[in-house]
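lol ok so funny story. i was supposed to be doing the assay writeup but got distracted and ended up predicting the structure for this chain instead. priorities right. anyway since i did it might as well share w the group, maybe its usefull for someone
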Amino acid sequence: MIKYIDVEKAIKERDKGILKYLPGWIIRILCRIIHQDEINTILNKTGHLKGPEFLKALLEEFQIKVEVEGLENLPENKKCFFAANHPFGFADGLVLTSIVSAKYGTLKAIANDSFRYIPQLDEFVVAVNVFDGSSKAYLKAIEETYGMDVAITHFPAGIVSRKRDGIIQDLPWQKSFITKAVSHKRDIVPFHFHGTNSKLFYRINTIRKIFGIKANIELMLLPHEIFLKRGETIRVTIGKPISWETFDKSKSPYEWAQEVRALTYNLGK
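and the output, tada:
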């Protein structure tokens, strides 16, 4: 069996941080938390597939049903940003990519560099390192992607939703997708995912903040969260495309990003 996900190897390959010094017993606990063996079993079962076929197989493997409202809002012009809120971590990325690829055949997903461990998605993923910063090679690849005649999926928050002001929601959306939409003449198609992660995910985030722990330890639960979605229905609402010409100088790119964020959340009401 191919070991696609190898927590111990990934930790030892880190150039910095205390993770590379973790004792073996803690690493074994981490392997159980992220379902390393179960994920590797699934990836070996579906490893002969690529791109859209692989996405479909994963949805079937987790028995996830998708209920979509607004499919008619997907434009014929594929050179758009398909931007979404990010409540789940993996399941929403899987569904977003599946919907867009079903319409346009191919796409590029701006995604965390952890997806490099899943070669079946190589044709889709343009990886970024959210926490340690991206290399010049990564940034060059992303910039080249923006100029291509290809659909791009994106979670502008950058990280998974957290509880803020008593509400589970994204952090403020980053302005870069607005500036890139304008400079590359890409309309933005908003996607709203209905639902949240488990209460445990948010409790750990709250506890971490109380004790002043900066490391996002709750992210270790994200693989567990997709297993909790097994057999469930994920609801998605797609809004009408927003022309890149909307984003004029009456607001800053950051302000426009929050406008699009608010519009996206309104789709869920």
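Residues 91-104 form the longest helix (14 residues). The chain has a mean pLDDT of 89.
back to the writeup now i swear
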